[in-house]
Amino acid sequence: MCVYTLCVSIQKLLDRRGESEESGDDDTRRRSINGDVDPNQPAGTSESRFDVDLVHCRIGKIEGLEVLQKAKTLSLRQNLIKKIENLESLSLLQELDLYDNQIRKLENLSNLKELELLDVSFNILRKVENLEGLTKIKKLFLVHNKVTAISNLDHLTSLEMLELGSNRIRVIENLDALSSLQSLFLGTNKITKLQNLDSLHNLTVLSIQSNRITKIEGLQNLVNLKELYLSHNGIEVIEGLENNKKLTTLDVAANRVKKIENVSHLTELQEFWMNDNQIDNWSDLDELKNAKSLETVYLERNPLQKDPQYRRKIMLALPTVRQIDATFIRF
């Protein structure tokens, strides 16, 4: 594998590659940029995989990449790109990173049939569109744009991770076709209700932090869910988790919860985040006693913390715990 870290022109890259291929020496052709022979590259061939890194190079336009037809990874992070274009020749590309540019529209990606990862986070997108040809994509990152709706994803049936945090989404919708989805991130939007998640049977991670949710509901079909993040919402009651028995992490921090309840059946819990709520009764900790693998609990900034024996009482009530808030227990 040839890994190029570049803030030089594409032509310089081509010149370097050309010099190696014209040498006529099989071992030379098999050498990576640091001079080591690639054991996976057979002698007598010049096949190479190029991971191209053009980060923070003040690139204003995507052009001149035709020489990189064998590239599998292309990173154009932190540039000044305004339009996705001139990528047609990179048909073998598996990862495309356009994080932190000035892109306003998803377009001109249809020829990237092998693409498995696309990151267009921190741009100026208002709509999810024109991804129909990306049927192999597994990870899609659209963090911190101006997207107002979840749409045009039905054809992405191989998608395993969807990150739409820090947008302007109000409704969870149009996810029914994403049966392979394992991780869904929707933090820092304007979502008011947990809904339309029933078809996501393979989902293991769900993060909807910093939204406007007031009720835990709509999770009954997510039987494989392992991590649930609901901090910084307006939730008042822990409920609706009857079928989520595989949960290992439950984060309900920074809500309006007054009582720890309806979690005694979550026997696989390892982390329980309940800081910044209104818990004032020590007997509530009995709800966590069935979680024999519980190692971390966050209860700081609840009325309970005013007790001088705060840490000691948690240790006595939950003897498996190894971390209370941000501090590990010393034995």
Automatic annotation (TrEMBL):
Coiled-coil annotated spans: 89-116
Chain intervals for the UniProt region annotation (Disordered): 18-47
Keywords: Coiled coil, Leucine-rich repeat, Nucleus, Repeat
Bias (Basic and acidic residues): 18-30
One of the record's GO cellular component terms: nucleus
Pfam families documented for this protein: LRR_4, LRR_9
Localization in the cell: Nucleus
PANTHER family: PROTEIN PHOSPHATASE 1 REGULATORY SUBUNIT 7 (PTHR45973:SF23), PROTEIN PHOSPHATASE 1 REGULATORY SUBUNIT SDS22-RELATED (PTHR45973)
Protein family per UniProt: Belongs to the SDS22 family.
Protein name in the entry: Protein phosphatase 1 regulatory subunit 7
